[in-house]
Amino acid sequence: MRTGRKKRFKFSNIYSFKCGKGLFKDDHSQIGGPGFSRVVYCNEPDGLDASLRNYATNYVRTTKYTAATFLPKSLFEQFRRVANFYFLVTGILSFTSLAPYSAVSAIVPLIVVIGATMAKEGIEDWRRKQQDIEVNNRKVKVHEGGGKFKQTEWKNLKVGHIVKVEKDEFFPADLVLLSSSYEDAVCYVETMNLDGETNLKLKQALEVTSSLNEEDIKNFWAVVKCEDPNANLYSFVGSMEFEGQQHPLSPQQLLLRDSKLRNTDHIYGAVIFTGHDTKVIQNSTKPPSKRSKVEKKMDKIVYLLFGVLFLIAFFGSVYFGIVTKDDLDGQRKRWYLRPDDADIFFDPERAPIAAIYHFLTALLLYSYLIPISLYVSIEIVKVLQSIFINQDVLMYYEEADKPAHARTSNLNEELGQVDTILSDKTGTLTCNSMEFIKCSVAGTAYGSGVTEVEKAVAKRKGAPLTENGKDDNERPVDSPKKSSVKGFNFYDERIMNGNWVNEPRSDVIQKFFRLLAICHTAIPDIDENTGKVVYEAESPDEAAFVIAARELGFEFFKRTQKNVYVKELNLVSGKRVERSFELLNVLEFNSSRKRMSVIVRDEEGKLLLLCKGADSVMFERLAKNGREYEEQTREHVNEYADAGLRTLILAYRELNEEEYNVFDEKFSEAKNAVSADREALIDEVTEEIEKDLILLGATAVEDKLQQGVPECIDKLAQAGIKIWVLTGDKMETAINIGVLRQITEGKSQIAKSGSEAFALIIDGKSLAYALHDDIKKLFLELSIGCASVICCRSSPKQKALVTRLVKEGIKKTTLAIGDGANDVGMLQEADIGIGISGVEGMQAVMSSDIAIAQFRFLERLLLVHGHWCYRRISSMICYFFYKNVTFGFTLFLYEAYASFSGQPAYNDWFLSLYNVFFTSLPVIAMGVFDQDFPLLYQEGVQNVLFSWSRIIGWMLNGVASAIIIFFFCVRALNPQAFNNDGKIAEYQILGTTMYTCVVWVVNCQMALAISYFTLIQHIFIWGGIILWYIFLLAYGAMPLKVSTTAYKVFVESLAPTPSFYVVTVFVVISALVPYFVYKAVQMRFFPMYHGMIQWIRYEGRSEDPEYCNMVRQRSIRHNTVGFTARSLARTSPLQDGNKNQR
């Protein structure tokens, strides 16, 4: 740290390609052109030039609505739904004389339903508003002139302001770093809010502004010209004009909004992008807009009911027209309508027009076939289901303090219908927490650790292995089972504890581990608790290499702008000494280069290029005299790959001064180019120097499987789910020629094999051919026939294309799961995207539908929550349509009984409150609390519970219930006397009795359909019935003008009459008998999956493994993935013909 005026210093190339003095020449030509038109006047935010540009303010709004737009936008959203729009039209028509009921009774339920949904939207948006207020009112120090800084809210910042950000504060906007509290103008930044990474990033100011302090700021003035606002977090092209000179700007000088300043007292920065122009806001994405298959089918059912509604309205209107015309005859059966003096609605002389008016009246009357509260009830249920998912402690990862998070509730039931899972490997199936376990140096393999893959293979062969290749009983007493150092699981006495000096090629071993200690971009720090050196590295691999070098005697302990310091053993004196290496250039790793190099000068003045990279690019760069250990190293690398390890090749070369100077000049020109092709120029220059290397050896690190992954995969396989792995990792056996021929041969081989399980492995190059339009269908057919599919070396685009191919090809639900930015396309393409909130950042989570912390939680998410949500939503929707068909058809039957006169069977408010109060709460309770057995997951995959046959079956059940209720009530109550006074059952008595029977029947039907009772369900079901009687008493007690046909009907007519209770009991039992008989026959002779489980429990055979397997195996395929699942499938006593039995 330092205070006062800073001394100037020589700028180094350590931190990035892109740092350094600008050598513009013609390379700045893009600045000012399309996409590069932003001009910022630093320290003059209110100047004339700045005000003319009208840049965005720093106020951020993430809300969907404003106070002015909430009502119109929200109403528009609600009435986009066909059902809601239909009820709006019927509500408007209810104000006309066509309506068979009062306008108020039609409008109030619509207002309640729409109001409830709008209230939900409003509450959610209000929460977002509160978050916005908190962020916008955060404080930051801004330069107000004269070198003085004052506190102001973030929302007041403007482009061009100079701000002072202090330790552990968030950056309020996108800033260009001007200087910091460090002598060399560096600062440490935590970007967890941007990409989820906890490791610190190093940023460094331009040399020309590095000496700025509070006193200098008052006279500071510069013009920044740069790219326009965009979403790319990792690129920035610009220039700064300062003191008459142009200086290139790069991502190294850019501090992004919402990242945090760490390990640095303060920095000064110029505001470049504000508010919605900042990169983090440009990157913010709404949860993907996806709809479940159940919801899409539900829309079709609504359309079907609309069709039924129009059909019966048309039929009734035609019949009404004919009968009305017949009223002209002398018989005059409907004399009470006064056909000789009727209005337009019953005029025999204008029968066709009367029929048309009746058609409109019937559309209003039969609207109760459409459940008005269906959509809002489903939204409520899905939100409650999402809360259950979010608060499930069994999906809470305590180590990282991360619960499951459903970012959208639209796809809850889709989780119960997954047929194929497409998974990333690194960080998703594995921990992405690397451990250095083996290495090959000078053709000799070191490290006796056993990987999980090797253990699993040995276990299958019946010869279990343990650490160091020995059984626990044979292990020496002083042999440690496992290193306690995180990232280091290496054991080999030959090179540990300084014993490497006794090896035949100790000089190569020294160069090997020295390379690991120097060739990286890690930042050393001292752990205050232990006093040991710890490292902030850009990747887990790099951290493992530096830790391994330290544990084996080559400790990287200090980094300055120009030097790297390493403690190592002196071969001559035998003591540990500190060595300094001047760091001249860092040639960084990227996905196209697949390697990283540093150029250093050692204490003897030698120029060394140290390089590490993938075998696919490193072996071809070796010199003829540098291949001494190539054959052995290749052999070891292949062995490591077979054992599931990630490998890197290490090599070096000595440079002469002339060669280096030529390279350095070209490299400086390339890295200071301000143009879109700067990276290509840099790659071209580095290509020339990274050649003629001398091979040292190879490293092998293990990315262990996450806890519970094998068991989770096996459970998912037992549920009949197919698993694909799409990874960018190495595949040992390349399949890169003759793709079409191999696919064709593979299909025929699977066809011949019968029940054998096959795995398909394909690499990225082959995948490019397999995804061609003329081959992809064959590729999909082959893949479907295999137990598992592994796509190696696949690019992010290929992952997305494979996901699309599977989704569109199999026409079943696909789920993609990943944890990195390279998985985003795959997650968005799949029906369901699951993001793992791991160590590769938050891009995957931000693009996902549901986020979980560990792959093993997928088992509970799908087999428990997914299956339950599917069962609940499916049963809920079927029941919703059942109760509305029951109610609607009693209206139709009564109107038919009344010669289609448009007379409703029930009081206006009876009609209105049926869906809203008396029958809706039990359905919501079913959608939230009903349970069955997670073992029955295939019910969802095969869509057993929401098939058209089941939906139509429930509707027919409703029709049957309506017929029984109507005819039994009519025949029981007419024409004899209803009570002791000889009074007959009038219209209001018949209607109320029928309504009472409907409420009892639909609620008791719910009780029969529920699999898992809770206290809440009992309260809602029986409470709904009690609520009806309370309402009947209260509503009947109101004045006649209000209660109309319900005036004291219960107190005076129904309650004192025994026949009312007898009819109710008899009708309810009779209406439930058809369903009960159907379920009894089905349960005995054609049990569904859950029926078989109930039989197991009933017969006390839950402990009989053979009988239980008969049920489980119905959901397992012979070619499924998973050892246990395949074993079960092979031993299945069920015949193929029984597998699809319902």
Automatic annotation (TrEMBL):
<feature type="domain" description="P-type ATPase C-terminal">
    <location>
        <begin position="845"/>
        <end position="1087"/>
    </location>
</feature>
<feature type="transmembrane region" description="Helical">
    <location>
        <begin position="1058"/>
        <end position="1078"/>
    </location>
</feature>
<keyword id="KW-1278">Translocase</keyword>
<feature type="region of interest" description="Disordered">
    <location>
        <begin position="461"/>
        <end position="484"/>
    </location>
</feature>
<dbReference type="Pfam" id="PF13246">
    <property type="entry name" value="Cation_ATPase"/>
</dbReference>
<feature type="transmembrane region" description="Helical">
    <location>
        <begin position="880"/>
        <end position="897"/>
    </location>
</feature>
<dbReference type="InterPro" id="IPR018303">
    <property type="entry name" value="ATPase_P-typ_P_site"/>
</dbReference>
<dbReference type="Pfam" id="PF16212">
    <property type="entry name" value="PhoLip_ATPase_C"/>
</dbReference>
<feature type="compositionally biased region" description="Basic and acidic residues">
    <location>
        <begin position="468"/>
        <end position="481"/>
    </location>
</feature>
<dbReference type="InterPro" id="IPR044492">
    <property type="entry name" value="P_typ_ATPase_HD_dom"/>
</dbReference>
<dbReference type="InterPro" id="IPR036412">
    <property type="entry name" value="HAD-like_sf"/>
</dbReference>
<keyword id="KW-1133">Transmembrane helix</keyword>
<feature type="transmembrane region" description="Helical">
    <location>
        <begin position="951"/>
        <end position="973"/>
    </location>
</feature>
<feature type="transmembrane region" description="Helical">
    <location>
        <begin position="909"/>
        <end position="930"/>
    </location>
</feature>
<feature type="transmembrane region" description="Helical">
    <location>
        <begin position="301"/>
        <end position="322"/>
    </location>
</feature>
<dbReference type="InterPro" id="IPR001757">
    <property type="entry name" value="P_typ_ATPase"/>
</dbReference>
<keyword id="KW-0547">Nucleotide-binding</keyword>
<keyword id="KW-0812">Transmembrane</keyword>
<feature type="transmembrane region" description="Helical">
    <location>
        <begin position="106"/>
        <end position="123"/>
    </location>
</feature>
<feature type="transmembrane region" description="Helical">
    <location>
        <begin position="993"/>
        <end position="1012"/>
    </location>
</feature>
<comment type="similarity">
    <text>Belongs to the cation transport ATPase (P-type) (TC 3.A.3) family. Type IV subfamily.</text>
</comment>
<protein>
    <recommendedName>
        <fullName>Phospholipid-transporting ATPase</fullName>
        <ecNumber>7.6.2.1</ecNumber>
    </recommendedName>
</protein>
<keyword id="KW-0067">ATP-binding</keyword>
<dbReference type="InterPro" id="IPR023214">
    <property type="entry name" value="HAD_sf"/>
</dbReference>
<feature type="domain" description="P-type ATPase N-terminal">
    <location>
        <begin position="40"/>
        <end position="107"/>
    </location>
</feature>
<dbReference type="InterPro" id="IPR032631">
    <property type="entry name" value="P-type_ATPase_N"/>
</dbReference>
<dbReference type="InterPro" id="IPR008250">
    <property type="entry name" value="ATPase_P-typ_transduc_dom_A_sf"/>
</dbReference>
<feature type="transmembrane region" description="Helical">
    <location>
        <begin position="82"/>
        <end position="100"/>
    </location>
</feature>
<keyword id="KW-0460">Magnesium</keyword>
<feature type="transmembrane region" description="Helical">
    <location>
        <begin position="355"/>
        <end position="376"/>
    </location>
</feature>
<dbReference type="InterPro" id="IPR023298">
    <property type="entry name" value="ATPase_P-typ_TM_dom_sf"/>
</dbReference>
<dbReference type="InterPro" id="IPR006539">
    <property type="entry name" value="P-type_ATPase_IV"/>
</dbReference>
<dbReference type="Pfam" id="PF16209">
    <property type="entry name" value="PhoLip_ATPase_N"/>
</dbReference>
<dbReference type="InterPro" id="IPR023299">
    <property type="entry name" value="ATPase_P-typ_cyto_dom_N"/>
</dbReference>
<dbReference type="InterPro" id="IPR032630">
    <property type="entry name" value="P_typ_ATPase_c"/>
</dbReference>
<keyword id="KW-0472">Membrane</keyword>
<feature type="transmembrane region" description="Helical">
    <location>
        <begin position="1019"/>
        <end position="1038"/>
    </location>
</feature>
<keyword id="KW-0479">Metal-binding</keyword>
